[in-house]
Amino acid sequence: MIISAPDGNGTAQAQQEWQFSADKVVAENDSEYVQAYGNVTVRSGTSYIKADFARFYQATKWIYLKGNVKAQWKGDFYDAAEAEFDLNNMVGWLKKGRVFVAKPHVYFESEFIEKHNGATYSFKDAKVTACDGENPAWSFEAGEGDITLNGYARLWHSKFKIKGVPVAYTPYMSLPLDQKRQSGFLTPEVGSSKKMGTKINIPYYWAINEETDLTVYGEYLAKRGFRPGVDFRHTEDVNSKGQWRADWLYDGKTYDNAADSESVFKDEGMIRPNNNRWWIRSKYNGYVGSPDWQTIVDLDLVSDQDYLREFRSGANGYEASREGFLEEFGRDINPMDSDHRVSTALVAKSWDQFAVSGLVQYDEDLRYRNGNNPGDKNPALQKLPQLDAFAFKENLMGTPLEWEAEVSANYFWREFGMTGARFDVHPTLSMPVTAGGVTFIPRAGVRATSYLMDSYQNASSDIKRDSTQGRLIADAGITAFSEFFRVFDVGSDLVASKDNIGKSSWTKMKHNIVPRLEYNWVQDDPNQKELPYFDSRDRITKSNDITFSLTNVLDRSQSTVVAGKDGEAVLESEYLEFFRFRLEQGYDIDEAGRSADLGQYERRPFSDVMGEIILTPYNYVNLTSRTWVSPYLGDVTEHENILKIFNDSYGEILFGYDYLRKIDEYKRKQESDMQIVRYAAKAYLPWGLVVGGEYRADINNSKDLEKTVSLGWNHQCFFVEFLASKTTIDERYAVNFNLVDFGVF
């Protein structure tokens, strides 16, 4: 038997025809309806309905089903004791029904479920879960609710259960069922620490529109109070985006004397008497009027010197904020234990040959807040404003000479200290010449600086008090470099065949050698000590040194056979710089001829030999190592090493080691040895287990800086992680829970 479902004009559509079969079919009431008994099946393409009994009304195309009702419609699966559907659009109802939505893997069941147009369901006394099995790992049981596929599950008077045991209640909850940005509660953070007590943070995410969203954090700290926060993000177009974050705490704990502060952070003994505590931070990329006028805003303001150290972790803590800014904007913020928070606004525009920019910058010195030091003695330097212009390198009036220039105009202001304006211009001439495979670039420049001062408050006795001053400093140098390379065949291309799909082979390797010799000279001007001082540009260090470097680079070409769109084998090539090795050493001509303090410090004109290795043999291995060796001590003076091995299926391992040697030389001093080690690992184990840990230590002071361990479990429908961490300032424990298929809680 064939049932044709009409379209809106009453015309039968072949693709909507339903094939009807059963053990027994009986026409009733002059064929007004048909009743079927035993193994009833109604099928259309991949969709079907099965039951023990069915009654089909031919005029309306409604079908009533009873007994072991099972159905599949556009990827969704139904199971019920009774059901009724309109075969035109599958609107209907289910009694004692269960619906499984394959995407995104959600089950819901209820005594009575109504299916509406637009793939929307409503129900009462329902259970919703993403877990398989009769006794799911977690579920929501709601008094009533509705579900819109590619939308939300909205639940009223719901209880959250773990293995059938109720653990939480909420009068209303909205759960997104799609991977798209949708409003809803994010995964709560639950934990405990010695300083904060029990902690719970319940964030709510509001997808305002396609370009804008807002996350509101409601964090409760048992020992400190309520700490709300906001995270507002917007992207109006491809040229602009911004993120604005803030949080606030009325803290029940203060430190009114230096002894209390010393017991907490063991730093310089600053006090923190303020109850009102907050942090405002942001990054913004955009433009003014036209995308040609690039605009950058960085905001970083905090209430006190301890706030970022105390609120380092968590969704709205320092580390999460910093990592988010680096990932989205590529710009960092000051370290959490820095006494300075810097906010900047910049507007810039570039042309083919020139560029201009304007900047204002505010430096917040936390040492002069909250009664630690008198505010009217704050020496923090503010740039209000700084104007810069750049002339890019180009030929000078058709000659072989090339010229470039930098111009800077600043007005500096302080609460306490020198204030005034500085104008600085630095033009440079150069002329590249290539001979015998070697490129020579001689250059010469001059720096002219003038000052117009408002105040010499707190200036040293060496500085002149003239309202206008200036200087003229010459500089010159020459760079010589060459490049040699050779390409080696290390293998042959694979044959693009189906048998070779997934196979890879290195085919070629290119070896580059770049020797580089550079001489740099900057005029010595001892009279600079009489000039005003705002920043390092006011004291140009003399230079008369030579630097030599030798860089080796190995690039490889790898061929891989992959499956194309039609399933045919396709050969693809990938290029990777897998090894870089650089040696560098300098020679200070002035140090070689130094006559001062020879009784205390011998001449040491050669700098340390620096060796750098960057190794990436595969996409899952990365080693960066820099080591400095003194030719006079015959030993290492500094190390910077980090090795990372990672794989999405197995985990990752990280080793880090930093070292600074105690040094007492004429040109440099390091008062004590420093060795910091870092080990971190994460392993993905069978049964969905994830084990991780991190350890950092100061070896010379025999002090542990951080010890963190975590144990997680990736279940089919959730991820739970237990974390314990001890640092120099706190000890905390946390439980992170994520409902995998919903993505939010």
What is the gist of this entry?
With 745 residues, the chain is mostly beta strands. Helices cover 4% and strands 62% of the residues.
Which terms would index this structure?
745 residues, mainly beta, 13-stranded antiparallel beta sheet, 44 strands, 26-stranded antiparallel β-barrel, single chain, 4% helix
SSE inventory with pairings:
Elements: E1 2-3, E2 18-21, E3 24-28, E4 33-44, E5 47-57, E6 62-73, E7 76-86, E8 91-101, E9 106-116, E10 120-129, E11 138-148, E12 152-162, E13 165-176, E14 184-185, E15 189-193, E16 197-209, E17 212-221, E18 225-237, E19 240-250, H1 258-265, E20 276-288, E21 290-302, H2 307-310, H3 318-329, E22 340-350, E23 354-365, E24 382-395, E25 402-413, E26 419-430, E27 433-435, E28 438-455, E29 468-481, E30 484-489, E31 504-522, E32 543-563, E33 569-588, H4 589-592, E34 609-615, E35 621-630, E36 635-647, E37 651-660, E38 663-664, E39 669-670, E40 674-684, E41 689-698, E42 703-714, E43 719-727, E44 731-738
Antiparallel strand pairs: 1-2, 2-4, 3-4, 4-5, 5-6, 6-7, 7-8, 8-9, 9-10, 10-11, 11-12, 12-13, 14-16, 15-16, 15-44, 16-17, 17-18, 18-19, 19-20, 20-21, 21-22, 22-23, 23-24, 24-25, 25-26, 26-28, 27-28, 28-29, 29-31, 30-31, 31-32, 32-33, 33-34, 34-35, 35-36, 36-37, 37-40, 38-39, 40-41, 41-42, ...
